[in-house]
Amino acid sequence: MKYLCAYALAWLSGKTQPKASDLADIINAIGGDFDTSRAESLCDLLAERDLTQVIKAGIPKLQAFAGAAAASSAPVTTTEGAKEEKADEKKEEKKEKEEVEDIEGAMDLFGGDEW
């Protein structure tokens, strides 16, 4: 997946046809391991294609580059995904509320109403 992400970053930076060296620069910048053959095969696969159209066509066509982790993971059903999303939203709302309460306590730092 990192090769695909690096390709997308290079494409978003203005390179309409990123090369393996562009991907190497991006991946090496974050200290990642780089496999030239994988990068070259991805660049060859996406050569002269509009990345937005490829993305619209669907992720399954690009899963070959996702690696063993994506292939071995079980797909999440829609209901499970929706439940997890709702739980995440509730956690975020609770965290935001706690942060606001923490900030409100600090508002009286310099005497509050005494001014």
A few lines on this structure:
Residues 69-115 are annotated as: Disordered. This protein has 115 residues and is mostly helical.
Give a description of the structure.
- Keywords: Ribonucleoprotein, Ribosomal protein.
- With 115 residues, this protein is mainly alpha-helical.
- It has two domains: 71 residues, Arc Repressor Mutant, subunit A, CATH 1.10.10; 29 residues.
- It has six helices and no strands.
- Helix 1 packs across helix 2 and helix 2 packs across helix 3.
- It is elongated, with a radius of gyration of 22 Å.
How do the strands and helices of this protein lay out in sequence?
Layout: H1 2-12, H2 20-29, H3 36-46, H4 51-57, H5 68-72, H6 78-106
